[in-house]
Amino acid sequence: MDPDAGNLLDIQFQGIVVIVGNYGSGKTEVAINLALACRPKADAVRVVDLDLVNPYFRTREARALLAGHQIELILPPATYLHADLPILSPAVAGAIRGAGHLTILDVGGDDVGATVLASLADAFRGQTIQMLQVVNPHRPNTDSVPGCLAMRAEIEAAAKMEVTGWIGNAHLMEATTPQTVWDGYEFVAELSSASGLPLAFITAPGALIGALSDRPINCPVLPIQRQLVPPWLKAETITDGEPDEPGRAPGSI
Asked: What's 94's domain CATH number?
């Protein structure tokens, strides 16, 4: 892995970064870890929770963690924190219009979740936007290049916005190995070539980053420190970019 390309903190995301993808691709985990990774070099980072479809593993579940790193989290009104109704806070449109700093939007899965973006067209007008599609090739419907391209088309049609790049998030939960990450990288590199869209970065469990040092990965790698876990598991502690359990190889969700 190229040591320069492999450091996500060398990349300065600006404006609005919209994270989309299919159900179970790991969008929310990516959004949380991206915000945490970018925070040290950004004047300010905010995350907007636009997942109005899936009641599980939403960005809002990590609100205490984000607040502890001075990352603003914009949520629906408290009354609707656990609702599945398509309710948007006026603060969402305001945050997008006033996005002077890095603003990451965590959007619900598939074309159904992406529909909410179309309702924000006025707020998006004149903004610098990257819409990145998260791909885990171990999930149904995105285990082939044609499948990923079909999902992209569905999301774009619903959002009335175009995907501008890919995020590779290959994992098998706790069974993730360096080979899992490497195979996933090759998959999204092929997807990038076939689509003509850039590969923004790939992810890897933090405990596996060192094992990838001899791999020719020519894009940034975001270390994932898993935060969204079932009640019987413990989230990883964010400490200077290193997971709290170096011997563990958790997968992102």
From this structure: 3.40.50.300
